[in-house]
Every structure is written in C-alpha cells, then in structure tokens.
Design goal:
Distance between the termini: 47 Å
Largest sheet: 8 strands, mixed
Strand content: 15-25%
Number of helices: 27
Shape: globular
Structural class: alpha+beta
Length: 881
C-alpha cells in the first residue's frame, strides 16, 4: 500500500476493538511463524483453505447479495465456527451432511459465529453461507466511486480490504496468516468490465441485461489482497516475460496511463531477476479509479493493483514532473509488493514493515536503476528525515511493535513503518553490500514463497548470504524506538590522517535529557579531499581514522539512520567547504543542522548559514531543501506580522536569483528536477507574497483563456495554488465556477482542492462548508478539509469538531480516530493542544488515541520552536537585511 504522508490527510482503517486470543503470540522479531504462535482474534480450532464466492452487486441501491462456500479444516472438535464479518446480514449457514447452524453476529467484535447441533469432529468440511452486505461510498470493503463525464454521471465499483475490511465483503478469517485460494464469480450488468486478481475464466450472458463472469482460481493468499472491480473501463496490455501486463482506466483514459504501463512492463522482468523468483500470476493489471482516500494512494492487490487516478495517470494539461516521478515510484512500490507482501506475507501486523518498509526501499532501488537522472538517493534522505521527525518525539514506537488488535495494526501504517523501515534496510544493505543483500533476499523468497514470516526470517537469510552478523544491529534499530545521536567529541590529525572520537547518545525533540538507548551504529566518514572509512559504534563509543586532514563528514553517503553533532569548529570547517561536498552530503548536513537547530542541539541559524553557502549551481534537490525550510520557518511566524515581513525579505533575497536562473519557461531537454525546482520557487516566492513573482503568477492565470502558453501543464497547479491562496471573493467564486463546469475528474479535483488553500479565513470557512455538500464529491471532501488545515489548523480543527458527525461521514469509515485530531497537528499553541486532548478524551477510546497523542506532541513542539528558536532567527534576519 502506498501511504499518504500528510498527517491531516492520512487515515487508518478502524477495527472494533477486541482482545487478542489467549494463546501466546510470537514475540516481535522472533523466528518462525506457526499456526499456534501467531496472534489472532479468532479461535484456533478451524482454518480455511478455499473460498468459492458468488455474488451480485446492486450498483444503484449500493447493496449486494452473496453465497460463499468455504472449505475448512476443523483441527479441534467444536460445535461453533467463528469467523470475521462486518456489516453483513446472514440468511443461512449450513454444512452439507451436518445441517444448518444458528447464527450469532457480534457487531462490536466484528465476528459471526455459526453453531451446529452436534460438535464437528476433526476433518474437512464445506461451510456454506448466504448473506447480504453494503456497498460503501468511502474506500473500505466493496465501495462505489461516482464521477462526471461528458455523457453524464457514472459509477464504478472497487474493493479495498487492507488491513481488515475484507470482512465487509466476504465472511472470512480476515487475518494475514490465514492464507487460502479463491474462486470468485459475479453477476454483473452486461457490457461492463469486471476485474479480479485472476483473468476471467468464463463469461455467460444470462439475458435481461445480466452476465455471469467467473474468474480463475487464485493462488494461496491473504484476505486483504482479494480484489474486485466493475465499471465502464478501457484496458491496454503488453505481454512481458509471459505475463499480460495491463492498465485499466475509465473510458478514454488509457493514453494517460501510457507511462504507468511502460513502467510496469519495464519493472516486471527486473523484479523477476532481483527476487530470483518469477511473478507467479498470468496477468498484472494496474487499475486507476477516480476519487481519493485520506489514508492511501494505491493498494497491492495480487495481480490487480488499485490506484487512485492522481497516483497513476498523467494528464499533460495539469501533470508536473513530480507527478511523473510519483507515478513511477508508486508503480514500483506496489509491484515490489507482489513479491514482498503478496507472495511472502508477514504473519501478523507486528511485522507490517516487512511489507511496507521493504517496498518503500525497493521503489528507490528501482528508480535508481531506471531513472538515474532523478538522483533518487537524495529523495531517500527526505524520507529518512520524515521518519526521524516522528521518531524523535516521545509518541514514537519501534518499527516492529507487538499488535494485539487490528485497530492497533491500522495505526501502524505510518512514517515509522514505511520511511524508518526503508532507512533501516538502506543502512543494512550498505553495511553488508548490495550483492550479499540481494542474495539473502532471493533465498528468503525461495524459502517462504506462499507462506508467512517474521522479521528474523529475513535477517537470517541475509546473515547467511553475507557471512556477516547483522541480527543485533537489526534488532537495535527495529525493536526499540528513537534516533541515535553520533557526536564527534574529538578530531585530531597526524601523519596525513584524521582520527575521530565518537560517542552515541539519543536525539530527541521533546525529551532531550532522558537516558539514551544504546544502538550498534554503522558509521561511514569521509574527509573533504581525502578518503573514506567505516566503523561500528558499539557500547556508546567508537573511533575511526580516515585519510586526509580536511573537514570530515560523518554519515558520508547518508546511508545511516542517525543524527550527527559536530563541535562548533568542526561544523564551521564543513560550512566553509560546503560547496565541495557531494550533493547527498550537502543535503544530509543541511538536514541535520536544521533538525538539530530546532531541537536546541546547535544554533538554529546554522542552517541559514549553510543556505547562504550553497552555490546556485547545487543539485536542484539541495536547493529545494532550502526552499522548503524557508517556507517552514515562515509558517512559524504566523501571527507575528512584523517579524514575518522581515524574514520574508531574507527569503526573497535568497530565492529570487534562483528563480531568475531557472526562469518561468522550461528549456528544451532540461532535467525533471530543474522543473520541480522551478515549481517550488514559484510556489514559495509568489505564495509568500514576493511582488514580482506574485504579479507574474496572476498575469499568467488571467492570460490563460487567450494564451495557451501562459500556464504550461507542469506549472498549472502551482500557479492556481498561488492565485487561490491570495484570492479575494471574486477570484474564489471564479475558481469554483470553473470547478463546477469541469468534467475531467483529475482537473476537477485539483480545482476544488485549491479552493481550500485560501489564506483569507473567511474564504477558508466557505471551503469547509462547501466540503460538507455533495458538490465536490464524496471522496474529495476530506481532502479539502485537510487542505484548509494546512493554512488554518485551529480553524479547521474547531470547525471539524463542531461538525463532527458530518465530517466523519466524509472520511473513510475506518479513519475516525485519526482524521480530526490530525487537522490540528500543524498548530503551534498550547491551547490547541489542550483542545485536541479534550476531543480525544470525549470521542476516542483510550486504547486508540495514539494519533491524537502524536498531534498533541507536534503542536507542543511547534510552540516550543516559536518560543525558543525564532528569536535567534529573527536576530539573524535583522543582520542579513
């Protein structure tokens, strides 16, 4: 699953809280996954092997009826078979030769129990269930998405089951360890296209406008990977390595999926080779759907990957270079899951990171191979920074965390699981070497294909291939939370070599004085103009000697997951030679300086000094880091107009020459990263009110109707965002009218989203009220609300609390413990933190407040920064001006 990063936009799938089964679960990181040891919410006396599902959706009434025949094995005699079910109504339950069962549904636990008159002895049976269910309007279970076309409104159906919503569609053992095969048949409107994990095996016209389609039997897999889709679709395919690789879109949209199709066709044989295991299904579809979720952008259903359109389609009218990169990395991420997650699946949600951290890392490896021009290693630094930002707060958790309930599993879909998991893999791969790592992964795939694993199964395979111990290092970074801090306590040069003395502490944004944890930390250092050396810091101490007597960069190459603290003189030496550093180390040193400065470990102005020392010819991603940090600093000044105006002069002075350098018009053959930088610079300068840039954005927007060159596709979103941010009522109404008239879902969604970006609080309130109407569409409303929160966190939070029930109807039905608290996460006042606490206490069960706690911690950290760090930045800006 490709998760969204915005805290206000991310939602999780809610499971009705229940206690885990009494049997002892596998400890985090322990070896082996067995039926007896894996955590479950169900009795262990029955397990499934095959599901034979026949169902009929009523697209207009948003309901369906179904019959499922489940081949089960009773491993302990029992009178009752209990499985998971949610929002399902049962009319009959029986086992041939045994008889009918009484039915008891527990809505809170999301289970259904079928009790027979006599106990079932050990053996194999077929349980037949007749039932009916709901088709939802948000992305959970079987759901409907409505969209506009020139021919009128259309509706399509899709499914979304991760992590625990298959039970809304098929009564099942809805947990990853209970793998089974599936045969699915559906009675559908004639003329529409049905999609599943496997190709259609047969199709029969039933008359009366109905057709019966039956899909081929799937391989053994977990429930959350099952998929069904239905609608007026187009499909384009290519045959690659014996596999029918396809893209599926709304009618007429396959040209927009050409890049995704080409990428998937390129990736399949490359993944076959990397994993040493051929993709085992006959087809692999990439399916684009209109709409949005607060939680995810794509889902790795085996053989039928689901994407929201913005994550897969490229429209030259509006798509940016960033969109192109995101399409490739999302396709790579979800295709990596076809092996790491689908073929080999974590036994329980403790090891969710085995799916998501690995797929996040693999998308980077694939990008480096197919698009070296994007310099994706620098993007990996950004992902690591996002993880460290979460991991340095007291609300963090280990990568591998024991999960008792599926609700806790839902909350594990976060930056620790994804981005920290990715960073830890990148560090360990660098430690053992690329070839040894790949050999270990191939052995892991071969041994565990179609099975379930825990983290130590991967570590064991890599250790065996590398002949190098990594288990202790892996445990240090995955079984305990937090960010190591490597401090250079001494550096001496003798005979042309520099020896560094290193100590290991812990970096924290809100508990800097707590006793640090201990990690075994792989560290790489490089002297400017000199050599490179590696060491393993153990027991909190280490030393390393490197050729050369110039400044030494710690964490050279940025493969390590830790912060670095230099002595002031050492940092000054690095700053002096900053232009000589490789781009990735410029980005790493900058990132450390900024985060360490905000947390009080070094002056917050050190970053600004580095920003001045960065040459205008630096890598666009390094320059983009300067842009993003300056925008972040500006946001801390909200409500402080005089100080903000003074700081903006610094921003204008630093960024305007960069915009003059790249210009408003793309040059033939320029790298994609330059185009991305252009958009960042325009968005920052015009967004922060730099007169020249703002005037040019407005001029181009006004000229768009008569001059087709005024607003090129890659800049359309940026220019519209600037105009919408600075809009008055007349301009806001004009954008809304444009959105109302638009028939293309991608463009329409962009227009409504930008309406929610207005700086004027009155217009922001109008956007919030509009979000609760049917006008934007069922799945776009939450995006609008989150967009308002980006500018006005307290306003959005207060409004959402006042309209709680209506807001929750516009959110994925499983997202309600996270969405509203997350709206306030960008605030900076203790009063707002108290409001979030009060909301959580009144509306969220005590065991489900983890996300609300994170929002409170984020607000308090921002409040501390405003109080303790801004004065120094203000003084620095006064001198710079």
């Amino acid at each position: 699953m490709r998760r969204l990063l915005s805290s206000a936009a991310v939602a999780v799938m809610l499971f009705a809280a229940g206690s885990a089964a009494a049997a002892t679960p596998a400890a985090p990181g322990s070896k082996g996954a067995t039926f007896a040891s894996v955590t479950t919410q169900l009795p262990r006396n029955v397990r499934p092997s095959h599901y034979d599902l026949a169902f009929t959706p009523d697209v207009d009434k948003l309901t369906f009826t179904a019959t499922v025949k489940i081949a089960i094995e009773v491993v302990e005699p029992t009178s009752t078979v209990t499985l998971q079910a949610a929002d399902l109504t049962f009319s009959k339950a029986q086992i041939a030769g045994v008889g009918s069962a009484t039915i008891k549904v527990d809505e809170e636990a999301q289970t259904a129990a079928f009790t027979f008159a006599k106990p079932l002895s050990k053996g194999k049976y077929v349980l037949t269930l007749d039932y009916a269910g709901k088709i939802y309007k948000q992305a959970a279970g079987l759901f409907a998405l409505d969209y506009d076309t020139e021919a009128g409104k259309k509706r399509a159906l899709y499914t979304q089951f991760e992590n625990s919503d298959a039970r809304r569609f098929i009564p099942s053992w809805d947990e990853p360890f209970y793998k089974a095969t599936y045969t699915v048949e559906a009675t559908i409107p004639t003329g529409q296209m049905a999609l599943g994990n496997m190709p259609i095996a047969s199709s029969k016209d039933l008359g009366g406008g109905k057709t019966l389609v039956k899909f081929a039997t799937s391989p053994k897999m977990s429930t959350y990977l099952l998929f069904f889709g239905l609608g007026e679709f187009d499909r384009a395919t290519r045959k690659v390595a014996g596999v029918d690789v396809g893209v599926v879109t709304k009618k007429g949209d396959t040209p927009k999926a050409e890049f995704a199709l080409t990428s998937a066709a390129d990736l399949l044989p490359w993944f076959n080779d990397y994993f040493g295991t051929a993709y085992p299904l006959p087809a692999l579809d990439n399916i684009a759907a209109p709409g949005r979720s607060q939680f995810f952008s794509a889902m790795e259903n085996w053989g039928a990957i689901f994407y929201f359109e913005y994550a897969m389609l490229l429209d030259p009218k509006i798509s940016t270079q960033t969109d192109k990169k995101n399409v490739f990395t999302t396709v790579a991420h979800e295709m990596a899951h076809q092996w790491f997650g689908d073929l080999v699946t974590m036994a329980w949600w403790d090891d969710l990171w085995l799916n998501e951290g690995f797929a996040s890392w693999m998308e980077g490896r694939a990008t480096e191979h197919f698009h070296p021009e994007w310099n994706s290693a620098l993007a990996a630094v950004g992902g690591r920074e996002y993880a460290m930002g979460l991991d340095a707060l007291v609300t963090t958790h280990p990568v591998v965390q024991h999960v008792e309930t599926v609700e806790q599993a839902s909350q594990a879909f976060d930056g620790i699981t994804y981005q920290k998991g990715e960073a830890v893999i990148r560090m360990l791969e660098s430690y053992v070497g690329h070839d040894a790592w790949r050999t270990g992964v191939r052995a892991y795939m071969k041994k565990h294909a179609h099975g379930n694993t825990v983290s130590d199964d991967l570590w064991s395979a890599v250790e065996a291939s590398a002949g190098k111990p990594i288990l202790d290092i892996a445990h240090d970074f995955t079984l305990q939370p937090g960010v190591p801090l490597i401090t250079v306590t001494d550096a001496t040069c003798a005979a042309g070599k520099t020896t560094l003395t290193l100590t290991q502490g812990q970096f924290s944004k809100d508990a800097p004085d707590k006793k640090p944890l201990t990690w075994r930390v792989p560290v790489t250092v490089k002297a400017v103009g000199g050599g490179e050396a590696k060491t393993l810091v153990t027991g909190g101490k280490g030393s390393v000697t490197v050729d050369g007597c110039g400044p030494v960069v710690v964490n050279a190459g940025q493969s390590g997951y830790f912060r670095v603290q230099y002595r002031p003189a050492d940092f000054a030496a690095i700053a002096k030679d900053f232009a000589k550093l490789p781009s990735i180390d410029q980005l790493g040193v900058m990132s450390d300086a900024w985060s360490m400065g905000l947390a009080g470990y070094q002056p917050a102005t050190d970053f600004l000094d580095l920003a001045k020392a960065t040459p205008d010819s630096a890598d666009p991603q390094v320059l983009s880091k300067i842009v993003s940090v300056m925008e972040a600093i500006d946001s801390y000044y909200d409500g402080m107009p005089a100080e903000q105006a003074a700081f903006r002069k610094v921003v204008y002075a630093r960024l305007s020459p960069l915009l003059d350098q790249v210009g408003w018009t793309a040059k033939a053959g320029e790298p994609d990263n330059v185009g991305i930088l252009r958009g960042s610079l325009i968005g920052a300068l015009a967004g922060l009110g730099e007169p020249k840039a703002l005037a040019e954005a407005r001029r181009r927007y006004a000229a768009d109707k008569t001059d087709p060159t005024a607003v090129p596709g890659p800049l359309r979103r940026t220019i519209l965002a600037v105009v919408a941010k600075h809009a008055d009522q007349v301009t806001w109404d004009a954008i809304r009218a444009q959105a109302q008239a638009e028939k293309t879902p991608l463009i329409r969604a962009q227009l409504y989203t930008q309406l929610a970006g207005a700086a004027d609080p009155a217009l922001a309130r109008q956007a919030l009220d509009l979000a609760l109407t049917p006008e934007p569409g069922e799945t776009l409303s939450s995006t609008m609300i989150s967009r308002v929160a980006g500018q006005h966190p307290e306003l959005a939070f207060d409004w959402a609390v006042a309209h709680k029930d209506q807001v929750n109807e516009k959110v994925d039905n499983s997202a309600r413990t996270r969405f509203i608290p997350g709206l306030g996460a960008g605030g900076a006042t203790p009063a707002l933190a108290e409001k979030i606490k009060a909301y959580a206490a009144a509306n969220i069960a005590e065991g489900s407040r983890k996300e609300a706690d994170k929002a409170v911690a984020a607000v308090m950290n921002r409040a501390k920064i405003r109080e303790q760090r801004l004065p120094a930045i203000t003084a620095w800006a006064a001198k710079a001006n």
